[in-house]
TrEMBL record, chains A, B:
A Pfam short name: TrkH
Membrane topology: Multi-pass membrane protein
Lineage: Bacteria, Bacillati, Bacillota, Bacilli, Bacillales
InterPro entries: Cat_transpt (IPR003445), TrkH (IPR004772)
Name this polypeptide is given: Ktr system potassium transporter B
Length: 446, 446
């Protein structure tokens, strides 16, 4: 006999998936209302669903223009879905998972809390509230700055509305914009460049790193996870800017740009590729070298437990460290004088293998479903990686998707946002505690 | 004081690299001779070097046509280089490494001999001779079959010469042909399809699997390594044929083909992608879906210790098994009732990460060096993966390479043939024995 209580007993990953699906369903219904559409006529079920998935998964890939095709009501719904799927998931999803994990066994604690294992349940909730307040304050401050910046061209009311919308998008690493060319008008604008990028970089660092920074206030005393995330993010940001700047010099499409515009553009595109999704330079006008490079950056993405996607900087760092260790015939993977558990490395491997498998599979399918005779391969690969990494940048495939192509991309965003590990654990969850005990410092994967 | 004996003390991987470089140098000098060229004028240093590297690395990518640009003398040199770099490396390289490994410590034995650890030194040499004889017999038998097949169209003398050349190429998984359109004239020919593919499939299985099959003569008693190689190869061959057959149905370029030609073509292209390099259907006339799929097959490649390239079927199998194990929250990676050592999984990880890194880096470089303004991305990626996996198939980039592009591709072939692990061990070799002992059954990686 199965008791009703038992059948409703979800594991934390199952709760997360359940929550995402509920938000997507409600979002779809609301976005399909005639009131949500700019012309008063429903945008239709499939496109409403696509936009809801893209919003809840904080991707920003769009089959319709948030600015042109939706009413203010529709735009507010998108904004709320993004805030729930990004900041909401970051603060509540992770907190609940940690708390439930404390009750339910080692597994989720290993997965989620390298820096929080000394906290009481009450302490964690207080911390979550602190992060939530911090995030909302950051969004508010940025909104004020952007209101001032845009007041002269848009007027105060519209400037404030645009500022709020894009601040929410930025912190949540969702690439929707109300402009019809993203941020391309502001390629050399320090205010727009800095305010947006600070938000999406902070949002992408993840709950645990923010908690760690908040508590320790000293770089040296940070956890291994935080150190790896911060160092990897910095290297990718600087290295990526440098590469895009150099290649950009050879691009005829950049001819009219000043040196400062080139520098801002290289910085912004390097930062946005790792999951924010805004752009100040048209991606399809870039040279192929830069486009392919951005695919790699998108694939790596932001960091675990944040509003960004990709395999994550921490996963990437573990893969690199494990590879170097094997090449040196070393006996343990280590960084910053800490050993990294083999289980962590195995998770990194599982994440990268399954992510590659999904991207390859989805790309193969789309090369068949989307105009099999006239496929522009790089465009397809770019948009698939963008969807999986919830980056939101596009080379143009997304706006021309067939219905089946939309379904493939929606599932790709969903799988990419939740991560292969979360999905796998949701499907295979058993309540058995781990048989192994780990003395090492832990790094998050996935 | 350093004794002269000490300075000449190479580790096994260093000997392998040294041997490859010597063969390449001698090959380059001979191929650059006016006598090696079809028109009596030297083909030039750089192209001679490229062809020598491609031959010794059993790739088959060609900046010149072996049939049209080289004399019979030049073609025989290519044939000898291929035989040395393929069969020679397979038999002598591996044997020497095992023998030296027995003397020098655990490391190379772990790397090289899952099935040979019960052999005495004399036993290994006898086995190597057996494999050598088996390979030469297979080449000879195939040469006789192809001589008969081609005698009517080429005459007996030329048929015999062509048959020998292509048999040597096939066993060594080197894709050079004397025809100007590879094997496209024989798309539906069972004799050519079967005789060549049996050779390159057997050559690609690797020394250890052949030894194992030769000794055990029973599928069930094979080592874990052999089972993984055989099962993975079979799945890839059948699955690959199926995919290419289905997608081929939608390709207007296949319109004139009969069903049997379609089936042979799907089988042959599926088999050849995993490192042989011949083709019976023009790769550039395929649909993008098939081209991308072939890139994936090339990347996986053949098996460790054979004449093929890629990350290897065994590495691929380990990655898949480790990923599934992690998804299931399993405590050990296993297959066929055998546990797989974590060190093996770590090696697989190092191979796939470094291979991806090399391919991404080389592709990025070539998108810059080869006509930065007009890059056909898929063509570049295809030829880079083909070079790294020593597959030898081309979508056209190779024949149009700039001098710097040729250098990038040559280094890519060299790194791909020797494998990242061999190169890394050559650079970091220390004579310290491993501190860990492994009770599990081993699987080769690299
Ligand atoms: K995004
Ligand atoms: K080959």
């Amino acid at each position: 006999m199965i008791s009703p209580r038992k059948t409703l007993h979800f594991s934390p990953p199952q709760w997360v998936i359940f929550g995402f699906i509920i938000f997507i369903i409600i979002g779809t219904i609301l976005l399909a209302l005639p009131q949500a559409s700019a012309d008063g006529e429903s945008v239709g079920f499939l496109d409403a669903l696509f936009m809801a998935v893209s919003a809840v998964c904080v991707t920003g890939l769009a089959v319709l223009e948030p600015g042109g095709d939706f009413s203010a009501f529709g735009q507010v719904i998108i904004m709320v879905l993004v805030q729930l799927g990004g900041l909401g998931f970051m603060v509540f999803g992770v907190t609940v998972a940690i708390l439930v994990g404390k009750v339910m066994g080692m597994k989720y604690r290993l997965l989620l809390q390298p820096t929080t294992n000394t906290f009481s349940a009450r302490g964690i909730i207080r911390l979550a509230m602190t992060i939530l307040l911090l995030a909302l304050s950051l969004e508010a401050i940025t909104a004020i700055i952007l209101t001032i910046r845009w007041s002269s061209e848009l007027g105060w009311a519209e400037a404030a509305y645009f500022a709020l919308f894009h601040s929410v998008m930025a912190f949540n690493n969702a690439g929707f914009t109300l402009f019809d060319n993203s941020m391309e008008n502001y390629i050399g604008d320090p205010v727009v460049n800095l305010s947006l990028s600070v938000l999406f970089i902070v949002g992408g660092l993840g709950f645990m790193v923010l908690v760690d920074l908040f508590r320790k206030r000293s770089l040296r005393r940070l956890s291994l996870h935080s150190k790896l995330v911060l160092v990897t993010s910095a290297i990718l940001l600087v290295g990526g800017s440098f590469f895009l700047f150099i290649v950009g010099l050879f691009n005829p499409a950049t001819e009219g740009l000043s040196l400062s515009e080139r520098l801002w553009s290289a910085y912004f595109q390097s930062a946005t590729a790792r999951s924010a999704g805004f752009n100040t330079f048209d991606i399809s006008s870039m040279l192929v070298a830069s486009q392919f490079f951005i695919i790699v950056l998108m694939f790596i993405g932001a960091s675990t437990g944040g509003t960004g996607g990709g395999i994550k900087t921490n996963t990437f760092a573990i893969l690199v460290l494990a590879t170097i260790n094997t090449f040196r015939s070393g006996h343990q993977v280590h960084a910053f004088h800490r050993k990294i558990a083999l289980e962590t490395v195995m998770r990194a491997l599982a994440v990268v293998v399954s992510s590659l498998a999904w991207i390859i599979g989805a790309t193969l399918l789309l090369t068949i479903t989307e105009d099999i005779y006239n496929v522009h391969f790089l465009t397809t690969l770019f948009d698939v990686v963008s969807a999986f990494s919830t980056a939101g940048l596009s080379m143009g495939l997304t706006e021309e998707l067939s219905p089946i192509g939309k379904v493939i991309m929606m599932i790709t965003m969903f799988v990419g946002r939740l991560g292969p590990l979360t999905l796998a654990y949701a499907l295979t969850y058993k309540q058995s505690p781990s048989k192994i005990s780990y003395p090492e410092d832990k790094v998050l994967i996935g």
